[in-house]
Amino acid sequence: MTAYFAATALLPDGLACNVRIEVEDGAVRAVTTGGEPLGAVRLPGVVLAGFADTHSHAFHRALRGRTHADGGGFWTWRERMYAVARRLDPDSYRTLARAVYAEMALAGITSVGEFHYLHHGPDGRPYADPNAMAEALRAAAEAAGVRLTLLDTCYLAGGLDASGHLPLDPVQRRFADADADAWAARVAALRPSAAFRIGSAAHSVRAVPRDALAVVARAAGDAPLHVHLSEQPAENEAALGYYGRTPAALLAEQGLLGPATTVVHATHLDERDVALLGAARVTACFCPTTEQDLADGIGPARALVDAGASLSLGTDQHAQIDMFAEARGVEAHERLASGRRGRFTPTELLAAMTAHASLGWPDAGQIAAGCRADLVAVRMDTVRTAGADPAQVMFAAGAADVDTVVVDGQIVVSGGRHRLGDVGALLQAAVAALEDE
Most CB within 10 Å of its CB: which of 35, 199, 306, 403? Predict the structure, then answer.
């Protein structure tokens, strides 16, 4: 048994002082307040439950700070992303993803949902192990010390317009299986482990035709099911033009909406879409730093939650890896759109930062007996956090203020340093190797 001691911690019922957290076999055995630190590992600052990054494309990290010279929008950025996708193989992807996941751990992230569609070789032919790229991600997360939910993604078409689905372009061939049944068979060969769960994803209604959406829904079963939804107005226009219904309505028609479903971005919705998603009790994953970076727009986060949806957060293309920034982004977007402050309370934002259940880890996200022992100690004496109310730390702190991170009872980050060493150097080498090819 290991004990941790926090002078201040955010527990399910609010801020508490002198908190002793006893951990056994990776889980919290007991939490007591008003205790003493005798024999315990002292954690500085305020201690929060570990964060959940519910939407990641690990290879997009190679684009940070490299796509801004020529302006453009989402579609021009996508061409730069495809150029990186062409260069990766299982070895280089493992190296890059290990560094990316270590950067996440430094930021307090203890679970990540990897929206994984980089499946096959550059020419579209499967590797000898058809899941070699998925196994590279598994190995990367294990080395970095974070739990991974692999959201294996069905991707079959090159796009959608009013005339129908478009053929795959050359780089997209490595994203695609022969059909939805072949995708499902490949995913079925994956095996979970203690820190590795398997979910499913439909890339979007642009990339997965209507009949294939139903196959994805059946294959997913009760496991997490994620899908990009209405990220761009062009997606809505294409779905209305070809299918005569919005993307959200199409997902509902094909059985993809329910409590196990996470819709990612959900930016350009009409009132009927919001009501439909809320009634289905989906989770809506917002990625504000990406939505800002790509000029995607401001989604109706408050309206979705009020309609019955839950909220989660993702770093998506990793313009930043900072869950505090994502949480503040949701609130800031709402303020800009509404002209009002306090659209989300600190408690609501913390719940979104710790939405592990949407990744298939329902026993994570709180500091409470029976939950996974995921702890994030945030310093309250930095130039950003000094003087802040610990209960409102998400409005002041950034990833650089994270001091200690415990995942399933094990210390992965201590004193702001990852157990792998210099993560900046790992990232520099991984990105440089891709540029040199």
Answer: 199
